[in-house]
């Protein structure tokens, strides 16, 4: 074999080796691209599932605790701002200001226990009454809750408002915020809700009326509670009990 032929054979062998290396490198790159594409597909599917689940929970996904509120109130009848069976012997009254941070803590930690134990069972019903103590924004918010109650979503509105409450008297109670809460609460007819919440002789006047009632009862802070039932001393004011057990015992005593 001549020196030239040997050099050509080595050259061809080197080209074959390089060609195989190129092929392997291309396959490696294709696998990497394919894996990345598959990962992106998985991420897209996961995001779609989350969006679907959020939508099925009801409400705007930018709000906190929409699903939690729906779960808490699911299956319990509502009428206006009253939650529970209308035939319940005892009525628990809550006088609250939707801007009140203490009311928020009660809505998250104490009231749900009473709802689960005695409202859901039909032993009692709970009626929310607006008691404006902070600012004019409380009147606007309370009227919006009453308007939601006219469509059977009053308690969803109240609970969802508390869980998304801003800094009191800061201007956060805007039309946009209230509409977001109403949609999250599942108010079916937003146009009707908008009209009713601005009704001077209806919802807005009712907030003023219930505030005056609270003042006549000598209530000085929110939330304040009262019970009325067959064995209560009329409209029995409880003040602001520190735990759910105190409220539950008052309901039992009024039954």
Question: What letter string, H or E per element, gives the SSE order?
Answer: HHEEEHHEHHHHHEEH
Query: Helix count?
Result: 10
The name of the CATH architecture of the largest domain is 3-Layer(aba) Sandwich
Portion in strands: 5-15%
Largest sheet: 6 strands, mixed
In total, how many domains does the architecture comprise? 2
The largest sheet has its strands arranged as 1-2-4-3-5-6
CATH topology call of the largest domain:
Glutaredoxin
Low-pLDDT runs: 33-60
CA-CA gap between termini: 114 Å
Decide which structural class fits the backbone. alpha+beta
**Beta strands, count:** 6
CA-based gyration radius = 31 Å
The average pLDDT is 85
Helix content: 55-70%
CATH superfamily of the largest domain: Glutaredoxin
Structure overview:
With 255 residues, this protein is α+β, with helices and mostly antiparallel strands. It has two domains: 1-57; 66-254, 3-Layer(aba) Sandwich (Glutaredoxin), CATH 3.40.30.10. The chain has ten helices and six strands. The chain has helices at residues 3-57, 66-73, 101-109, 111-119, 136-149, 154-163, 175-185, 190-197, 203-216, 244-254, and strands at 78-79, 82-83, 90-96, 124-130, 224-228, 236-239. A six-stranded mixed sheet has the order 1-2-4-3-5-6. A hairpin with a 2-residue loop joins strand 1 (78-79) and strand 2. Helix 5 (136-149) packs antiparallel against helix 6. The N and C termini lie far apart (114 Å). Residues 33-60 have low confidence and may be disordered.
């Amino acid at each position: 074999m001549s020196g030239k032929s040997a050099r050509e054979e080595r050259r061809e062998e080197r080209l074959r080796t390089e060609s195989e290396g190129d092929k392997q490198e291309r396959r490696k790159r294709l696998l990497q691209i394919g894996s990345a594409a598959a990962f992106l597909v998985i991420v897209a599917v996961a995001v779609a599932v989350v969006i679907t689940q959020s939508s099925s929970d009801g409400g705007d996904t930018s709000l906190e605790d929409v699903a939690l509120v729906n779960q808490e109130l699911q299956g319990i009848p509502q009428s206006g701002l009253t939650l529970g069976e209308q035939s319940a012997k005892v009525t628990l009254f809550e006088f609250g200001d939707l801007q009140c941070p203490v009311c928020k803590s009660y809505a998250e930690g104490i009231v749900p226990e009473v709802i689960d134990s005695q409202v859901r069972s039909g032993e009692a019903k709970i009626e929310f009454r607006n008691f404006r103590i902070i600012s004019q924004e409380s009147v606007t918010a309370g009227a919006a809750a009453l308007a939601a109650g006219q469509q059977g979503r009053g308690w969803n509105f109240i609970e969802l408002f508390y869980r998304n409450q801003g800094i009191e008297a800061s201007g956060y109670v805007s039309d946009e915020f209230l509409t977001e809460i109403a949609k999250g609460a599942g108010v079916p007819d937003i146009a009707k809700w908008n009209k009713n919440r601005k009704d001077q002789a209806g919802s807005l006047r009712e907030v003023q009326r219930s505030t005056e009632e609270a003042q006549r009862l000598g209530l000085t802070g929110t939330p304040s509670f009262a019970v009325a039932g067959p064995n209560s001393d009329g409209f029995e004011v409880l003040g602001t009990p520190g735990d759910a057990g105190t409220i539950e015992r008052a309901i039992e005593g009024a039954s």
